[in-house]
Amino acid sequence: MFSRAILFVLSVLFVFPAYASSGTDKIVVYSARKEHLIKPLFDLYTANTGVKIEYITGKEGVLLERLKAEGKNTPADMLITVDAGNLWHAAQEGVLQPTKSEVLDAAVPANLRDPAGNWFGLSVRARTIVYNTEKVQPSQLSGYEALAGEEWKKKLVLRTSKKVYNQSLVASLLAEHGEEQTSKIVQGWVSNLAAAPFSNDTKALEAVAAGIGHVTIVNTYYFGRLLKKKPEIPLAIFWPTQESGGVHMNVSGAGITKHADNRDGAVKLLEWLAGEEAQAQFAALNMEFPVNSAVKPDPVVASWGTFHGSPLNVSVYGTFQTDAIKLMDKAGYK
Ligand code: FE
What we know:
Blueprint: H1 4-20, E1 26-31, H2 35-49, E2 52-57, H3 60-70, E3 78-82, H4 84-92, E4 96-97, H5 102-107, E5 120-132, E6 156-157, H6 164-177, H7 179-192, H8 201-209, E7 215-219, H9 220-229, E8 235-238, E9 248-257, H10 263-273, H11 276-284, E10 289-290, H12 299-302, H13 316-319, H14 321-330
Parallel strand pairs: 1-2, 1-3, 6-7
Antiparallel strand pairs: 3-9, 4-9, 5-7, 5-8, 5-9, 5-10
Bound molecules: fe (iii) ion.
Fe (iii) ion binds next to loops.
């Protein structure tokens, strides 16, 4: 004999799956940002709202191809990736749709989001100079441009030009200085290399710490991670170009997919990610700066000091990306 209580439980169990598949109470995210950097936030959002978030993580290129191949049938409502160059590229490939949101416009500075609203920065990384404290005095440093000077011969360490971070950096130099001057800068870098370009920022930092070179250009969070592991490492941050253009800024960010089934839900999640509750954690998990200026950075990140960041709109890294790749190739920057 079924009691009424058991019948009630059974009816809930059978009704709930139908409700869960309606598409309005779950959000699907494709993320090029790694699982340990997003899962704590998604768990918090679900705890707050009851909205379920399903996600897959992968390389940005793979996720972009998947979105294109899936077209209208994609289950994804949101794409999260790193670097404005990648976000710009996703928008160019037509997999994102514009979002109009006063909440996002207020939370995300205008230069750290797509002017057309296809994507919004959620955390900020600076691509800055790091030097060996036993070999270099900070007074010897000024900007990215000056690392092309003869005094840095065989002292400069760089990551490969194949990485979008460096493509964005050179794109910003192109936007600021034009082709002729940027060519000279990049050629100067190449002739100053202490070793062939490294495959990642951490290896570049370790080469400078080992004295292979004296100075490199990396994203701030890689410096933070390495320092956490090896507090005694003889490296320090230098904020370049403080008198003129400002430090090269970049973002991790997100946009709503063109064929989102749960567009409204995804916009709400995006607004929450840019808001005060999520921002401190979203940035701190990867030792980045919050995009929302109402939120303070993590104490370790704050200890690197304040600086003047470039006011350039980061979408420019996309518009100059092809030119930057050609220029680096011509300059022999591998
Ligand atoms: Fe990175």
